[in-house]
Amino acid sequence: MAISRALTFALVLSLALLRTALADSGHTATSCQIDSLPKTVTDAWAALKRSPNELEPQLAVADALIDQGCYKEAVPVLEAGLAQRPRSSELQSRLRAARSMLNEEHFFEGLGTAQEAARLQHSVMRCTKLADVSACDDALHIKPDDPQLVIAKGDALAHGGRPADAILIYLRAASLLPSDDGVKSKLAAAESQREALVSQCEGNADTGAADACQAALLRGSQDEFALLRRRGILLQSLGKPEQALDAFIAANVLKQNDKSVALAIVALTDSTGRRDAMALAARGTSLLTLGRATEALQALRQAQALAPALPKIKVQVAQAEQAARDEAKRQTRTASARAAGSNAVVGAGGASAEAAKSPTSARVAASGAVTYSNDADAAHSN
Amino acid sequence: MKRLVALVMVLSLLGAAGCTSRPPTIAHVHIGHAITGVHVTPNQEGYLVTAERRGGEAVEFTRVAAGSTDLAVIKQNVAAAVKATDSENEFGVKQAIVMAANHITFAATSDDATVNVQQAAPIFAAHITRVVERCELIDLLGKDVAASTSAQEAGVSVVELGKLTQANVSGDDANGDGVVGSIPSEYGLVQLRKELEAMIARENPRYVTVPQWYLFNLVRLPNGRWVFDKLGRGGNIDGYK
Q1: Residue A341: pLDDT over 70
Q2: What was the ipTM of the complex prediction?
Q3: How far is A186 from chain B (nearest CA, A)?
């Protein structure tokens, strides 16, 4: 009994393996390359052209095609032969075999299709009935422009408290179904839901508020930066520096000249010790915003070394280099001015010990013009 | 003369009752494997019969699952429904209907197959797809239920399982035309049986129920030809492939 069952399954398995083997060797009907057939087939065709009414060349062509897995092509050859010799058992058996293989291919294709179709239905069901967003994505991967699926994903997102994401999806649904009132009302509802979250984000100071800021985030919206900054502030106050830093980094990407964000990023990169390319780049641009160009250049160069393909990093490094040069000039100018002021005081009030050591210094201190020339020299040395 | 007439009548009756030495066609034996009996199934019933029986079991297990609020009971019955639907070792609906289609295909490729069977076999094989599709979906939903953490969560899948197992038996009305099983993509086992019975009804020479000996002793030779094992080893044959 067991052996018989094994025998039967082996038979089915052998059919499946045969199909796989044929597919692997390019022998399926669909992959039968009629233009690049081997010499055995072309020779058989040539022989058949010479003697189109002879049984042997007909069988030879059919056999050669069947050997190559070209069942679809073999069928008309055999049918033509049978039209001439309806009682030929050789033609009949080959035709039956070729048709059988074709049917078998379709059968297995059908089973394969059934599996895919079931997976799609499963994803659609989980998307529509369980608001499973990843299932929506799986289904949309197979049917990207199915408006009902797009709407279902929007519903799933809205149901999951992500109205901002839902808005984007409903907008896509609206582009697929421009006159659909249902989509419009879903869009309006999602916008209202988002407004409520924005209020919660701005008005409260708890974890729920921080989550609301995140859920209300809508790419490209006017309040995107404000929501990210607010989320960062809330998370920082809730003792979640890593997440706060992420929020501030995201805000910094949108707007790089905000001093409060820049200060937060510098403080949080210090306290968290984060030194990945993204954090370093954000720290660099923040330091630039805060006018600490030399430190900014250092951070940006580190970021560039870690991730040379980081967006805008080359430009940022170049900006920082320029700013560092300017900073150095300013520092030199300031130092010179201080020195000049100090010497002037010394000159007026009596000789200091240091000035007394250097006749040049004493000379510089005595002349404002020389002070400017020193500045110039310093600038050139840079 | 009366004796002669009586003899002819007796012989006719014996013939009609199957007391004839003429074996069935190979094609008809394969058809018999699908609808009457085959030695490999649990009850030595035909593959389609197995599919119908297992389909009914799946419906029943799902019904019990749907009627329970105990997650453990739900999971247990859904697992049983999935096993009745898709189990290689215990002939689930999927395995049984695929085997039925295979044997109808074997029938069509037999040397003695009628044109009727040759034409109907690929159609039948194509029409089982929806049942197979539902089996696959039942499998996936079964996994969802197995992973559920509450009866409520499992409930959504169980409702779907109920529809699918029932549709596998009796078909569905996916296109909403008010007729269950009006198109092949709505077919269940009921419609597939009707299709097979229609094919059998068209057979000429007429199909008669194949005796068990023939059903259990059809073997395939290494050269691919089907023959009856005269030693009657019930398909349990070494040396034959």
Answers
A1: yes
A2: 0.78
A3: 24
